[in-house]
Every structure is written in C-alpha cells, then in structure tokens.
What we know:
This protein has 3 domains: about 5-105, CATH 1.10.275.10; about 110-150 and about 165-200 and about 235-350, CATH 1.20.200.10; about 365-440, CATH 1.10.40.30. Helix content is about 60%, strand content about 5%. Helix 8 (about 210-215) links the parallel strand 3 (about 195) and strand 4 (about 220). It has helices spanning about 15-20, 25-30, 30-50, 55-75, 85-95, 110-145, 165-190, 210-215, 225-230, 235-260, 290-310, 325-350, 355-360, 365-375, 380-400, 415-420, 435-440, 450-470, and strands at about 150-155, 160-165, 195, 220, 270, 350. It is mostly helical. The strands form 3 sheets. It has a two-stranded antiparallel ribbon with strand order 1-2. Bound molecules: arginine. Arginine binds near residues 110, 114, 318 and 323.
Amino acid sequence: MTNLLWGGRFDGKVDPLAHQLNQSLSVDQRMWREDVAGSVAWAGALGAAGVVTTEEADRLQTGLRQVQTEFEAGSFAFAPGDEDIHTAVERRLTEVIGPLGGKLHTGRSRNDQVATDFRLWCRSAIDGITGFTRQLQTALVLQAEAHVSTLLPGYTHVQRAQPITFGHWCLAHFWALERDLDRWHATQTRLNVMPLGSAALAGTAYPIDRSALAGALGFARASENSLDAISDRDFAAEFLFDAALTGTHLSRLAEALILYSSSEFGFVTMADAYSTGSSIMPQKKNPDMLELARGKAGTLLGALTGLLSTLKGLPSAYDKDLQEDKGGVFAAFDVLATMLPVVAGCVATLTVNIDRMRAALDPMLLATELADYLVRKGVPFREAHHVVGAAVRLVENGRAAGTPGLQKLSDLTLEHLRDLHAAFEADVVTVWDFDAAVARRTASGGTSPDNVRAQIAAARQILDAAAREDKR
Ligand code: ARG
C-alpha cells in the first residue's frame, strides 16, 4: 500500500482499518466499464488538445482496452492498495503500458471522474429498469385481455364498493408503471450532462474541448459549473426517488394480491413457482414473493432518505461523504432488477378464480345503481341517495333479525320500495344486474368491458412502440 495515488506528501503508513474504511472498491468496482470508457474518452481528449501526442493517446487507449478485456474475461486482479475502481484501472494501465500510464490523469481528478462514471452507470441502469418494467406491464395487459369482462367487487376502504372488471383492475397497475417509466426517462434525460473536465473543483487548466468529449461519451452537453458538477448528486437522489415510487407501486399491487389470494377472498391462486411453504404447517402456501415486494419498498425508501441525509449538510464541492452515494443506488437497482421480473412472473402465472370473484358480488354493490334508477325517473340524486340508504337499512335490519326474504337488497319487493318512494315501478328489477351496471361505465376511464378494450389497445400501442424502439 506504499504506492497510493495520492501518496506523495505522506510518509507514514495508512492504518489498515482506516484503509478499509476509506476504500470504496468493494462497492464501486461494478463501474469498471464506465471508468474505462470515461478514461478512453479522456485520453482521446488529451490527444486532441495536444496535451499528449496522438501516438501517446493511442497507446493509452490500447492499454485501456486491454484492461477492459481483462475485466470482461474475469481475469482482472485487484491489488491490496486499490482504493477504488479509478485507482485500480490506472494502476493496471501503468503495469500494462509503463510510465506513460501516469499521463492519463493529467488535468483530471477522481472528483470529476467518479461523477462521470456514476452518471454513465445510472444512464444504462435506467435502460435495464425500463426493460424489467415492460415485462410486468406486459403480464398485466395479458391478464387484462383474458379478463375484460370478469367481474369482482371493487373496494374502497377495503369495503365492497361497486362491481368492476378484473381487466380494469390489472390496467390500473399498468398505468401506474407507465408513469414510473415517464419519470425514469425524465431522470435519464436530466442526468445526461457531463461533469468530466471539472477536475477537482476549479476546472481543468488544459485546453480540453469538453463539448466534443461529451459527445464521445454520449452526453447531451458538458456541465456549466465545475463546483456544481463535481458535487451534484441530484441524479442519484432522483434515481432513488424513482426507485422508491416504483417500489411503492409494486408494494401496493403485491398487497392487493396477498389479500386476494387469502382463503377469505380466494379471488386468485398464486402459482407454486412463486409461493413457499412453512417449515411446520404442511398445509401452508405463502405469497412470500409478494411480501418481499412489499417489504423491499421500505428498503428503497430508506435508501432515498439515506442519500438525502448525506447530501443535505455538505458544503461546497467534493467531500468524502459523497462516496456514500453509490451503495444505495446499486442496491436499489438490484432490488428492482429481481423484483420487477418476479412480480411479472407472479402476475403472468396467476390463476384467476372467476367464480369466487362473482360469488363475492352482493346486490348491495348495486345501491348506487338503485339510486341512479330513481334519478332516471326524475328524482334528484341527493334525495335518491337518501331513499336507497333507507332501503339498505331495511335489509341490514332484516339480516340482523334473520328475516327470510329480507337478506339481500334485491329481496326488496316493489311494495317495500314504493313505501320508500313512489317513483319505483316494476322495471326496478332491471337494476339487479351486475354486468349491466359495469357495462354502463362507458365514459372514458370507466370499468366497462368496452372501455377496458380501448385501454388495452392504448397499452398495446405503448408496448409495441417500446419494442420497436428496442430493436433500433
Ligand atoms: N472513491 C471516491 C468516491 O467514490 C472517488 C473520489 C475520491 N476523491 C477524493 N478527493 N478523495 O467518491
């Protein structure tokens, strides 16, 4: 550990535990690809600026490509003194091409280097997350297609509210994920600004063409202010917010499916492939994957608050606290990279128990329809709501007393109803039709099968366009 990158002014040895605390290689080695790419581009920029000769720039780039090959082959050997990925790559480059390797870091600092690497890493990570999210969206659309007109109770306050279609329910989760993707892509666009050339804090003293360098690395432009550029971790915080909200959406979907797969609901059955058993109760089949989706949403939220807490007290430019920025982002990516495909698998392999869903439809769910019936007969809705409330009370009293013929809202005879309001007529029986109630919700955004078909068409268009984009 005598050859530390910054060792010139030091004569004592670093305490081994202090080195252990200081190093970030264990976390940031997964940015090797970005670190090599950033260095290849930097070597090119040094050559173009005449800081090194064209021949030297070529040799630097060839050496870096060999280092890359070693990483790809899994043969890259880290040395005990490698403090972080930047140190490791430069150390190995110098072993490969000799003292010329020492020219690579001219005009650059690890401060602008790490900020650049991290942005590059997040940029491609978002492409990965997009693909995983598409998998889950596809699974939801497939279920929606299979259940355009499968009815179940819709719930508010976890109380049965009105009948809806299961297709509509599936697509509700599709649209939440679509908003997530919109957010991820906005984050990706915003982060695509290059810090490289900001050096330690004050900017570089060499005539580097930063616009050309940005172009070489696929950035939209170079950053405006070196102080800001090396300390800006907004993109990491946004990444973690997007992850936390995606996690929250997965958690809410999971929670609903956990409830629906319980014996009490029995609306869906989870495939064995996504269930686990109990070590003591042989009958148990547990929705662990969904519980983990719910649980890990908390971990994702923790990563976001952790990073914001790290950032909020920092004075200008680089402080070592910033080294804490990567662990949470990498972990968040890893969570989503497993969670999204697993939840997609859960949804794709779900058995939908159509009969159990239908059996849970109680005519009470048609109370709004009964009020709307009166509205069609000219009764103001507020009055109709009141009348139907009295009808509901009648049935609830009948249920409490066990009165035969007064157990369901649809048990009420025309006489019962006419006692409550004179506008009721014989055609009131048409109200007791769940499918008709659902089919009436045709205004855009409603649960009718026709509307669900239109939503599916829109969703398919989005997925097809995304697949075409991927192929390009
Ligand atoms: N490993 C460091 C990080 O991840 C790289 C930057 C080090 N800069 C410094 N001035 N010590 O933040």
